Amino acid sequence: QIPVPVLQISAAQHPVKAGLSDAFMILNPSPDVPESRRRTIYEYHRVELDTSRITNLSAVEFTPLPTCLQHQSCEMCVSSELTFNCSWCHVLQRYL
Question: Looking at the keywords, is Membrane present (predicted)?
């Protein structure tokens, strides 16, 4: 049960985010405190959900898009219609 409708939650108190994202993190030494590290998170992809559709007893299903990982041969790789550049390595018999 959702105690408060999502659209009524104030962003000033706690920003509401619903979805899925992918990122990587880098730990950098902090110039102010030498023994500590500063985390920098670089997000490179995000899928956001329409928060007005989040209700009691609702569920979300994410279906992944195809990637180079699915290719099992050179022919499958080079004939792929993916929007990014993957290539097949004959020596390793796998995608790059």
Answer: yes
Average pLDDT, the chain: 76
User: What tokens appear for 91 in the block?
Assistant: 């020596």
DSSP 30-54: -SSSTT-EEEEEEEEEEEE--GGG-
The dihedrals phi and psi of 77, each to the nearest 5 degrees, come to -70, -50
Confidence of residue 11 (pLDDT cuts 50, 70, 90): confident
pTM for the full predicted model:
0.43
Same domain, 16 and 50: yes
Q: What is the C-alpha separation between 88 and 50, in angstroms, rounded?
A: 38
The boundaries of the domain holding residue 90 are: 64-95
